[in-house]
Amino acid sequence: MTEPRVAPDWYESAGVRGGPRRMLEEDREAGLTVFPEHLVPHLHHEGLAGAGADIRRALLTQHFYQYMLFTSHLETKVVNRGAALVAHGETDVELGPDARLDALKIYSDEAYHALFSLDVVQQVEKATAVPVLPYDFGPRMARLDRTGRVFLPDHGTLAHILQVVAFETVVTRMLARIPRDETVFRVVREVVGDHVRDEVHHHAYFARYFKELWASLTPATRVKVACSMPHFVNDCLRPDIAPVRAALLSVGMPAERAEEVLRDCYREEVLTAGVRDAGRHTLRLCESVGAFDIPEAREQLQLLGLAD
Ligand SMILES: [Fe+2]
Ligand SMILES: [Fe+2]
Questions:
Q1: What are φ and ψ of residue 52, in 5° steps?
Q2: pLDDT of residue 1
Q3: What is the Å distance from ligand 2's center to 164 Cα?
Q4: Torsion-angle region of residue 89: left (phi > 0), alpha (psi -120 to 50) or beta?
Q5: Max alpha carbon distance in the chain (Å)?
Q6: How many CB atoms lie within 10 A of CB 129?
Q7: CA 158 – CA 73 distance, rounded (Å)
Q8: What residues are neighbours of ligand 2 (ion), with CB under 5 Å?
Q9: Rounded CA gap, 52 and 70, in Å?
């Protein structure tokens, strides 16, 4: 089997190697919005129909902050934890020197993604004067760790690796469209574009990595891995509601009204459909190795509403 690899010209092509620092210049952003409005479900709720432009802008900006801060935490705390394990050979798959070095290239990419995500948050905060609300990655981390404990309690670092496989192979189609969305701040389009370009290589690396990993597992461990994957996909894609609540309260919405907006905009079936859509590549990857031919895993897939 071929080993997982990143771009052969990584030293020339990776954003961290030669990409410019993206800067917000206010005259370039005139008439544009910080994030696409259609990606913010609660902005379309009737409870906000009468809200003034300032409130709508504040909510949109908070949504942008949350996405960027989520990215920054995720890269450093989840993806790079796994990338380091791969690089140092502290996993169940034995890789050759090139593939291990590539894992550190990914590590460098992700550290840079975390850096430019936080950088652009700070630049937008300065330009718009919409204060960044505190962001807590803890609940997401707790969900990911819980899935590891439930399905792979005796497998050391395997859960950390599978979390990376899930995050690196899901594809959020809507985000991929941001670089071409001419209504959005140029700096945001540039930063998201830089990110998407690197991630194409990561996706290929971890899809290949997963296949190698699967081939090396015992039948008993395969069952556990197959059962855990739908949960990891769900853990990484299901949006956090708490930051949305905090954003609604921050613009002065009464608590009861905020709960109503959350209930209406983040209904279970809508969230599940979103996970199914963005997770389809990862689920197909699992399917391609026969993971969902295992009845217990099929059951978990159905339990989460992620079966076709
Ligand atoms: Fe990244
Ligand atoms: Fe990545």
A1: -75, 170
A2: 61
A3: 8
A4: left
A5: 60
A6: 9
A7: 20
A8: 168, 199, 202
A9: 27
At residue 240, φ and ψ (nearest 5 deg) are -85, 130
Q: At what angle do helices 242-250 and 255-265 cross, to 10 degrees?
A: 140
Cα 15 to ligand 1 centroid, rounded to whole Å: 11
Which of 272, 225, 222, 263 minimizes the C-alpha distance to 244?
Answer: 263
For the chain of 308 residues, list the mean pLDDT of each consecutive stretch of 10. Answer: 90 96 97 95 92 96 97 97 97 92 98 98 98 97 97 94 96 84 97 95 96 96 98 96 97 96 96 96 97 98 94
Domains, the chain, in order of start with CATH, read 34-303 (1.10.620.20)
Q: Which ligand is nearest to the CA of 82?
A: 2
> For position 173, what pLDDT does the model report?
74
Backbone phi, psi, residue 211, to 5°: -65, -40
Structure tokens at 56: 């709508």
**Contact by Cβ (8 Å): 177, 244:** no
Cα separation of the two ends of the chain:
29
